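Human: If only I could read backbone structure tokens as easily as an amino acid sequence. Underneath my words sits a plain record pairing an amino acid chain with its backbone structure tokens. Take your time, and here it is.
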Amino acid sequence: MSVVIVGTVGIDDIATPSGQVTRVLGGSGTYAALAARLFAPTALVSVVGTDFPESHRRLLEGRGVDLAGLDVVEGETFRWGGRYHEDLNTRDTEFVELNVVTAFTPRIPATNADYIFVGNIEPGIQLSVMEQLDTDAFVATDSMDHWIRGQSAELAEVFRRSALVVLNDQEARMFSGESRVPRAVGPILALGPQAVAVKMGEYGAVLAADDEWFFAPGYPLPEVVDPTGAGDAFAGAMLGSLAEAGAFGGGRGGDGGVDSRLRGNDGVDPSPQPSPSRGEGAGPDGPSPQLSPSGEEARSFGGGRGGGGEVDSRLRGNDGVGRGSDGMGRDDLRRAIVYGSVVASFTVEAFGVERLAALTRADIEGRYAEFKEFVAY
């Protein structure tokens, strides 16, 4: 199974209490692709200008990222500059120069892919990407406060066509108009995605799906150097993990086709089964609390779409196993969100993509084992 990442590739200037760097490789697509490649073959679809440093291209290619979908056009590459406050939870954007991104028309490779991450770009462009996809593709999307404020209707259509929506807690609350995350995810799920992953910064991440919750802790790092791109790395690692496991195989593409592979047959909720390629690596154990993501009565997917009113048991098997007939299911998604948290925790240890680019699977599995110990009781 393979992953396609659609997002920006840019050149960043970053300042944090730990120091500052200039003209380093950045962009949402870059971080997501460097994370996903640790789990599955990954292609990056984006655009750069003729000023894009050859060293940045070599770094991506040297980590195995397929750059056939990276267009080079006359002009300057996307540029971003930010300065983080002492607590690292707040940031001032000092400049944004879209440059060649303003004329960006993503072209998905003809071979297509099983798993697509459509990163934080204009909702109209996100929808144009979805129109190019096979209906069996598993599509994950991200967004930001700028698009939520200015293009909420278009963004709702993006979420409607997504299998997985990834937002931070502020974005989820803003989109839904709810002040608390347990209520904020309800209106998003009602649009039709199978799950919503909410990034909580240093506190970890939350997965909401139908009437179930799963929590992945944040790694207790004594020092954070640079949080830039951690959320994109989180999403990329999630998609890579799902691709490696072959999970869901056929989520929703251009027409939002319903995938029934999440339907369990018996409802027992066993511990996760490892992917054959990972040997004995297992995911988080134990059942999730039976709470409604909205904090009220459980919302149904309405047969895979919002508003239908029919009960969808994709993450809730009739016997409680929570796995489909092909052995895939919520355990793969839970494992993926932990891997996302693990990879994000490494990303913040150095400026830009430095730590992420140097990351190995052995590093990841070592910290993954620590995460398991964090939640064992």
Summary: The first strand starts at residue 3 and ends at 6.
